[in-house]
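Input.
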Amino acid sequence: MIEQEIAQVERYYQMAIDFLVTYSAQLVLALILLVFGLWLAQRISRWIFTLMQGRNIDITLTTFTSNLVRVLLIVTFVVIALGKVGISVTPFVAAIGAASLGAGLALQGMLSNYGAGLAIIATRPFVVGDTITVKGVTGQVSAIELGMTHLRDEDEVEITIPNKHIVGEIIHNSFDYSLEEGTIGIAYDADYEQAEALISAVLESQTGIAQTPKPQVGINEFADSSVVILYRYWAPTKAKVATRLEINKAVFQALQQAHIEIPFPQRVVTLKQEAHS
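Output.
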């Protein structure tokens, strides 16, 4: 038994020696190619990263592109190095293709999110800091990743939307501001022009809201017991509720101080009395 094991070890040893003698030059060349490939992949990846950063391309797309180029170059040089030592790469390529197909089918949803993320980064329909509304969800963009986009509302609630639910949808982008509206009713015999001037003055005095486009004030409706005035303005998305509450309070106080009547709903009821003979 011992003699057989020794003979087997000697046979393997001789096979290794023969392989090294036969492929020594190829092994050295393969190692040189592999080291050179790693160095070249790193240099080209850094060059692409620096070039894209210099052109102010989105950091997510820049990082993804540079890493993808590095991986592709490394795989290319590994395949070339294996071929130099006589190892057939055809089975590896077939295995990688089969594995990629299986992974693609299993991760179809995730890959579609990544594809949509690349489309968002490339076309830039919105950037970090913009206020968007998509599929009934509104928030300020806090981060754009390859797989998902993060929004944050005024209540500091973070909303995560998979990118595949953004691409192909109708997107409302109001940038840093959100449109707010308010209404208040005044009596029919009140001075409308004075009320409009007071509300306009309140909106102009608010430093937080945007003045371009300018706030709008006008008659919105002729109700049963009042003339309803509508005022519209653009408030910062991060403080839109607080701004709306403050402006509504200021409008109410301004009309009260000017003694402009803000009526409550009224209804006139007429009772008919039947005549008795």
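The first strand starts at residue 131 and ends at 134.
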